[in-house]
């Protein structure tokens, strides 16, 4: 946090202080940091309701983990902007649907990320959107709504004005092709996915990443939740792969891996055995070069998971050295794995790396402390709230016995403590880790939270009130 018109860089030892004037290049009613599902929907909704909106995004398109990060998993629309997105992706030909007919033998295959536990040969439907195409559609939607979307622009700092009670943000500092610029606004929306705006503005949060303070996963075993880099390969002949798994009696490709390791094609440091159930996602989740993939975008194209090894316990969201280490290591792992697959695994002879996510996604970043922190007890108790943002929702929680609960989410968990004019979205909501992870940070919900935040911001602008004064008394969804 810095004083107005100053930009201070802090490094660990020795410190240097850089001071310079930063011109205010834009002013808007609503300023959104990050264009993931949360920031995207917030900007869109606020602009559609008449607010002037500037959105900053460091990459070249909206969509966050789901486009720039190549996640791409699509769902049936849950209403509002999310449903509209699914319809527009479909209309532009960017939805790809895999079923037991397009991918016979996929359900129950141990290499399948999502369908591995299904009955072999059973029916399944796996919808994805083409991340690059989806990013184009989302960019168009922002353009149509009149959002000033600044791509290639990184949020750097928040200029905070001290109040007698709470503080408020007067402007943010960004860095882009023009150098450092200031963007002044009335309401600021946190859409960075890792609560960067919260941290720079001095609002309170619990640090994410690494070992979890709560200790245990759904099965009672303590472990961190690593970040991950998704990548795609095209030209895979899955039927040939499946035939090999069966004829060689090598469902997990262990024989091929042993062969490659013996030939020096799988360096020991890279080889990571499966964790046999000892991790949040069960048996497959981590482990390169073991395959963990899902169909995406087109026939013969699959998205593959490459995760940071658990034991590294990196803090990629707030430690640049950890961040760089993860990026270096995962690119190297992908290269080794791609070479292994092409050389040793039937069905991959003509496969090629067709994409690597623009960033290593953080699954467990900072958790802001809001005016209310949604916790597992709220969920288990089915607690109701006067400021519920949706009608009661039912979701399966890993923690709490891996069963379904029906519950509500209050608007107060969109409002960070200490800062008056900020609204949270997406993975940056004020949820404790056990309620956020796996459940309340999925694509549909993050889009919904953005839409709710954008709605609230626009109403506050209309009524000239602060978000904390806004009475959220009718569920939005
Ligand atoms: C590896 C991984 C796999 C996942 N798999 C699934 C899944 O299978 N299904 C599912 O539903 N969910 C999945 N998730 C969770 C889901 O993707 C996230 O919870 C969701 O994308 C969060 O949305 P968001 O809008 O809060 O942030 P994000 O999607 O993280 O988007 C944040 C955006 O802000 C931008 N940004 C960040 N910092 C700055 C800055 N300083 N300046 C400018 N721009 C900035 C980023 O570039 C990005 O575009 C996964 C997450 C990860 C990391």
Q: Which small compounds were modeled alongside the protein? A: flavin-adenine dinucleotide
Can you tell me the CATH class of the largest domain? Alpha Beta
Number of helices: 10
The value of Rg in angstroms is 23 Å
> Quick one: overall form?
globular
Quick description:
With 477 residues, the protein is an alpha/beta fold. Helix content is 25%, strand content 20%. The longest helix has 25 residues, at 320-344.
What does this 3D model show about the protein?
With 477 residues, the protein is α/β, with parallel strands linked by helices. The chain folds into two domains: 24-86 and 133-207 and 366-469, 3-Layer(bba) Sandwich (FAD/NAD(P)-binding domain); 100-126 and 219-356, no CATH class. The chain is built from ten helices and 17 strands. The strands form five sheets. Strands 1, 2, 5, 6, 7, 8 and 17 form a seven-stranded mixed β-sheet that branches. Strands 11-12-10-13 form a four-stranded antiparallel β-sheet. Helix 1 (37-48) packs parallel to helix 3 (131-145) and helix 1 (37-48) runs parallel beside helix 10. It is globular, with a radius of gyration of 23 Å. It starts with 23 loop residues before the first strand and ends in a 14-residue tail after the last helix. Residues 34-39, 56-59, 64-66, 68, 71, 73, 154-155, 191-193, 196, 227-228, 361-363, 425-428, 441-443, 446 line the site of flavin-adenine dinucleotide (FAD). It comes from Bradyrhizobium valentinum. One of its GO terms (molecular function) is metal ion binding. InterPro entries: FAD/NAD-bd_sf (IPR036188), HdrA-like (IPR039650).
């Amino acid at each position: 946090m810095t004083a107005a018109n100053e930009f201070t860089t802090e490094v660990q030892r020795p410190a240097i202080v850089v001071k310079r004037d930063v011109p205010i290049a834009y002013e808007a009613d609503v300023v959104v940091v990050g264009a993931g599902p949360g920031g995207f929907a917030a900007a869109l909704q606020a602009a559609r309701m008449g607010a002037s909106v500037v959105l900053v995004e460091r990459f070249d398109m909206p969509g966050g983990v789901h486009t720039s990060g190549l996640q791409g998993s699509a769902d049936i629309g849950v209403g509002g902007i999310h449903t509209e997105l699914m319809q527009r992706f479909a209309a532009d030909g960017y939805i790809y649907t895999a079923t037991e007919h397009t991918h016979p033998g996929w359900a129950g295959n141990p290499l399948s990320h999502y369908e591995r536990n299904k009955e072999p040969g059973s029916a399944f439907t796996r919808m994805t959107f083409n991340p690059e195409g989806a990013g184009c559609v989302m960019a168009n939607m922002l353009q149509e709504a009149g959002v000033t979307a600044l791509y290639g622009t990184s949020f750097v700092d928040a200029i905070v004005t001290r109040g007698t009670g709470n503080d408020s943000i007067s402007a943010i500092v960004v860095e882009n092709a023009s150098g450092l610029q200031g963007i002044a606004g009335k309401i600021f929306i946190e859409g960075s996915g890792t609560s960067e705006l919260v941290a720079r503005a001095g609002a309170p949060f619990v640090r994410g990443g690494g070992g979890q303070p709560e200790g245990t996963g759904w099965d009672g075993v303590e472990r961190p939740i690593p970040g991950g880099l998704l990548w795609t390969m095209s030209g895979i002949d899955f039927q040939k792969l499946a035939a090999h798994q069966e004829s060689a009696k090598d469902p997990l490709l262990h024989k091929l891996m042993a062969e490659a390791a013996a030939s020096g094609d799988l360096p020991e440091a890279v080889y990571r055995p499966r964790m046999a159930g000892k991790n949040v996602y069960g048996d497959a989740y981590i482990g390169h070069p073991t395959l963990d993939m899902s169909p995406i975008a087109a026939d013969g194209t699959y998205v593959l998971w490459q995760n940071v090894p658990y034991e590294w316990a990196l803090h990629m969201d707030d430690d640049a050295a950890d961040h760089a280490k993860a990026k270096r290591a995962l690119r190297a792992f992908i290269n080794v794995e791609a070479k292994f697959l092409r050389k040793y695994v039937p069905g991959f002879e003509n496969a090629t790396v067709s994409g690597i996510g623009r960033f290593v996604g953080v699954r467990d970043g900072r958790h802001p402390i809001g005016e209310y922190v949604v916790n597992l007890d709220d969920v288990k108790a089915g607690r109701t709230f006067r400021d519920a943002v949706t009608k009661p929702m039912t979701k399966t929680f890993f923690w709490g016995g891996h069963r379904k609960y029906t519950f509500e989410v209050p608007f107060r968990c969109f409002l960070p403590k200490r800062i008056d004019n900020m609204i949270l979205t997406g993975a940056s909501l004020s949820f404790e880790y056990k309620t956020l992870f796996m459940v309340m940070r999925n694509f549909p919900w993050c889009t919904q939270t953005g839409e709710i935040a954008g709605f609230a911001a626009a109403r506050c602008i209309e009524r000239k009130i602060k978000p904390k004064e806004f009475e959220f008394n009718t569920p939005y969804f």
